[in-house]
Amino acid sequence: MLKLNTFKTTILAGTFAFGFAAQASANGCQDACTAVEATGQVACVIAIFDEPECSIAVAAAYAACTAACLATNDVSAVEVEGGAPARTKLVSQSILNSDLCNGKLTAAQPEKAAAFCSMFK
Predict the structure, then answer these.
(1) DSSP string of 85-103, one letter each residue
(2) By the 8 A CB rule, do 61 and 94 touch?
(3) Closest Cα to residue 87, out of 26, 13, 14, 31?
(4) Nearest in space to 42 (alpha carbons), one of 98, 87, 104
């Protein structure tokens, strides 16, 4: 029987989603902000943070990412200047600055919260 460490497996899945969306080239900002939302929801699903605060923090992180996209690109919010590295940085900064990682939201599982947030440093 195959036993999986649920936390590590879920974090790896979230990291894959983060990396895939952040590297996509067609709709840079949209993909990056979707990655922020998906990655944040991983923390909610595996109960690192309590609900409904976790989902509220994820929605705020998504909104902050979208605002950063609009500020970054005057012509449209489709592409972030600098390509994939810039999108990856945008995702990381959005997660780190969100209530999920800035210390404003109390973690139900502090060790897992620290591990989750350290992935984006």
Answers:
(1) HHHHHHHHHHHHHSTTTSS
(2) yes
(3) 31
(4) 98
Q: With contact defined as beta carbons under 8 Å apart, do 79 and 30 qualify?
A: no
Q: Which residues of 54-86 are buried (b: 16+ CB within 10 A; e: fewer)?
A: beebbebbbebbbebbeebeeeebebbeeebeb
Q: pLDDT (tens digit, 9 = 90+) per residue, 49-87?
A: 888 999 999 999 999 888 887 776 543 444 555 566 777
Whole-angstrom distance, CA of residue 88 vs CA of residue 95:
11
Angle of CA points 35, 13, 9, to nearest 5°: 150
For the cut 80, the answer to whether the pLDDT of residue 103 exceeds it is: yes
SS3 call for 68: helix
d(CA 100, CA 97): 8
